[in-house]
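The passage that follows is intended for readers who have already worked through the single-chain material. We present the inputs for a multi-component assembly, then the predicted structure in tokenized form, and finally a short commentary. You are encouraged to pause after the input and sketch how you expect the pieces to fit together before reading on.
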Amino acid sequence: MSAPNSDYDPVEVTPLRADEVERMRDEALAAIAAADSIEALKQAKIEHVGDRSPLALANREIGALPPQARKEAGQRVGQARGAVNQALTRRTDEVEAEEFERKLAAEAVDVTLPIDREPVGARHPLTTIQDHVSDIFVAMGWEIAEGPEVEAEWLNFDALNLGPDHPARTMMDTFWVTPESAAMVLRTHTSPVQARTMLTRTPPIYIACPGRVFRTDEPDATHAPVFHQVEGLAIDEGLSMAHLKGTLDHLARAIYGADITTRFRPSYFPFTEPSAEVDLLCYVCHNDSAQVADCPTCRGEGWVEWGGCGVVNPRVLIACGVDPERYSGFAFGMGLDRTITSRYDIADLRDLWDGDIRFTEPFGIGL
Amino acid sequence: MKVPVSWLRELTSLPSSVSTEELAARLTAFDLKLEEIIGGRITGPLVVGRVLTAEPEPQKNGKTINWCRVDVGPEHNEPATEDVPAGRGIVCGAHNFGPGDLVVVSLPGTFLPAMGFEIGSRKTYGHVSDGMICSTAELGLPGDASGILVLEPGSAEPGADAVELLGLNQETLDLEVNPDRGYAWSMRGVARDTALAFGLPFEDPADIAVPEAEAEAYPVVVEDAAACPVFTTLRVSGFDPTRPTPAVIARRLVQAGMRSISLAVDVSNYVMLELGQPNHAYDAAKLKGPIRVRRAAAGERLTTLDDIDRALDPQDLLICDDDGPVGLAGVMGAARVEIDDATTDIVIEAAHFDRATIARASRRHRLSSEAARRFERGVDPTLQVRAARRVAELLVEHGGGQVEPGLTVVGEVDTRREVVLPVDLPRRIAGVESIDTDAAVRALEGNACEVRVDGESLVVVPPPWRFDINDPYDVVEEVLRVVGYDQVPSVLPQASGGRGLTRAQELRRRVGYALAGDGLVEVKTFPFAGPADFDRLGLGSDDERRRQVLLENPLSAEEPGLTTTLLTGLLRSASLNVGRGHDDVAISEVGRVFRPRSGAPAAPIYGVDRRPTPEELAVLDAALPDQPLTASWVLLGDRERGGWDGPGRPVAWADAVAVARRLADVLHVEVSVEAASLAPFHPGRCAALVLDGRVVGHAGELHPKVAEAYGLPPRAVAGEVDLDALLAAAPEIGPRPDFSAFPVAKEDLAFIVESTVPAGALQQALAEASPLIESVRLFDLYTGEPVPQGHVSLAFNVRLRADDHTLTEDEIAGARAAAVQLAADRFGATLR
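Having made your guess, compare it with the prediction:
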């Protein structure tokens, strides 16, 4: 049929028949629209767009038409084929998208399945609280100082105005290193770090010393032979009890919240004079008259004991080479273990030391 | 110090409007901290009753109760009926009383603090019990708690108020006295502080007139005047030892926590409580020759009043007579010369002893006594004669006889000293603006100091009993105590600008996060250990880690010293976790271990009047044991648990080494691994961790016997590394990134080597075979056919790249050949 048509009969030639071209186009469009898979589309393409499709055959006939008839016929068939191709492209996109969606839908999983194969680590709260408190001091422009845990007797006691017969020495329940004549102890407080700092640096000094300390307490629900402290020391010109109070108020707010204040009660420590116990406004009941009576944390006191503090005794300054005529300073210390047990309502101190992973795990990597 | 409140009120003019709670609060603010208020809170009808009938009724539970009718006085009695006389029906479980006895009855509505609840009328054992017959314990009285308190016949009438009768309305303040306030171990001292706290005038109970003496009372020889600066004796004769202790003295002693024993002993103790001067009453008939105060001789022994035979130390100070020691001076006497119920002639001793001498003796003999506690903390050294006089007068007042005119006084103490300070020091150091000179002077005079303003200075002479006022700052504390600690304002000081955390501190945190990131749970353990721990770890008898820093006073004999490896604690913790049902455990600890330094000297004790020199400080540090910060870890069970998406992966030796490698990585230090064989590890599965040619730790599988000893599942692994060594090696800044954008060439090389060739070493060598080799990674390890016996196939991904051009085929082939050649030369490797 591709040969020139010598028997030209305009009526008999398909491209000249608009109704016929329309029919072929509509059949093609219907077939494409009906195709709902790539496979069906392929078939529709072969039947209605391929070389043997009615529209392709009609198109071929155009060449045989006399020039005056070609234009109209060409336009008619071309438009029809264009519409079919367009429909095919569009439908192909649609079907491909649908098939992709179906594939994805088939890949759906149960996202509620537990994902727990990787071990999850955690840091001990006594570690993280030391970091936390250290950060508060660093933010104030203080530095963090450290020292040995087995310490010279002289630094743990004598340098801190705790002479050999001082009654407070026996109150410290000290672990002594064998032989006693070696004059070494497990440090009973982190105060020797303060002494070491004064001995090796010149004022102004603003340091905090977090760390592990030791007392000969049998472990029970409220005692442990090892516990943690943070102590602070400031040596500068013109420091007073008021600066101590300001520092402790700041620390209390940073740890326990903006509305927590402190109060002083007179006390005695050989290394400070005047000395005070510092209490925290109860961070549970806030000494609120409606709640304080039943408060389990302060037991109706409205205040909880926090630590000891005072103005550094000039005798300590002298032993550590600081001129007491020029400088004064203050020092304070508080236990961190109790901060953890009271804030997290942990009844038995031994939980901190048993090493049961369920104790540490809930703390994750930060408090 | 237990302070009977009525006694304190008697010694001060405290208005009765001041409640006990208010009094306690003010004393607490005055450095006499209230521990608790004891007694005095009984309310409601607590009355004397006479038991009319007591019928024993056996019960099903095996007990026998007494169904009693008790006459509790007309005011409280139920009227008589046909069956019973007027009284109340009360069920009582005790049996130490009977009809006719006088007892104490708490009627319904009575609150007994010792019981903690209000007594009610209740139905029990088939009767309505209309109250309770009280025991001493239920009344909060000291003494025998086993039965009902039965009163002396005729001592009261039924219906009488038992609170008043027994002095149960007496309150006692239990005050915590800090060691610098020795004077507050007396009513005299507490009363003075009370008067000062409330701004009241004070009359000193120690203002006792002592008549001139013409003769000796009892001869005394003091051989050691430094240890015993003052010793006085006074005599009472014609004393009647059968006379009872007055009720008020007995009650006050009991309130103060002591026992009432006999008139003479009670008076001695009473004066100690009142004035703070410990004293002793001897039976003059039992003393042989003069009293001698001397140090103990070698080998000497003494049986103290607590019936303990003590070997004496040559440093112990003794009170002796011709027959030997009669007491450990200032601490405790001996039975041989004590007064008894036949004593009529009494020698009273009141002495002053050196505080340190008494403190050491008390500590040496682990013997604390009321006397030692006071001498240790400081007793007024001018008080002895007056205190002895007070004892003598009270003995005569209550026991008859007369005070002999003689008085022996050996020695004298001059305590007068001046403390000079700038007048503005209290204001400056306290930081309280309102403290002016007047306020300071008033506060100090209230503390019985002599005060003088001398230009810009304050000259303070503390009273003889204030051992705590020696320095200018001590004066500041006394002033602030009176002004009030609550007056101190809050001022945040401006620190001078810190440098933040040190590098080591930062890196330590990084290590903590890395361990947690590796799935390890941090635990904390006590650093105590002993031979049994080292046995369980399988350490050889000559293992260095058996050499511990030992403690004089360890908590447990099994753990006599500090640990040398964190694994002692960590494996115990692992064991606890397994015991508590955890199948998969991964734990770590970062802490110090302790290693004695061979031949280290004792730590010197320097003076405190100056800073030690740097050389002296170095000597001090050299005495301390090594105490490096160490990281340790234990893993067992599955490293990765089994689940719906795959099987579990059991922990293997490599996981222990991986932790060490991770730590090295995060610190940017190069740690290499070598085969090692060391307890507590499996001899063939132990890696030594090597840093700069030095072994800094080990990791690997635990020896099967160690795992078994700790009750751990097989194949548990562990590791430990000297963290201080890693931290010291960490560079100031990490490595700079160094990579090329030119294309990579990938070559795979599989070698057959003898099984003894360490794969790590081969990999390391390949990486260094050519500068073009960027990285080498072992991706397969294979044994079995066709690899010959005793050999292993190791397959590596080798990546090659140049910094400045695309590699040519020849370059790649050259580098590959170099690697193959090197492997062959160094390790006998053949290309597979």
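Commentary: The domain at 745-831 of chain B is CATH 3.30.70.380 (Alpha-Beta Plaits). The radius of gyration of chain B is 41 Å. How closely did your sketch match?
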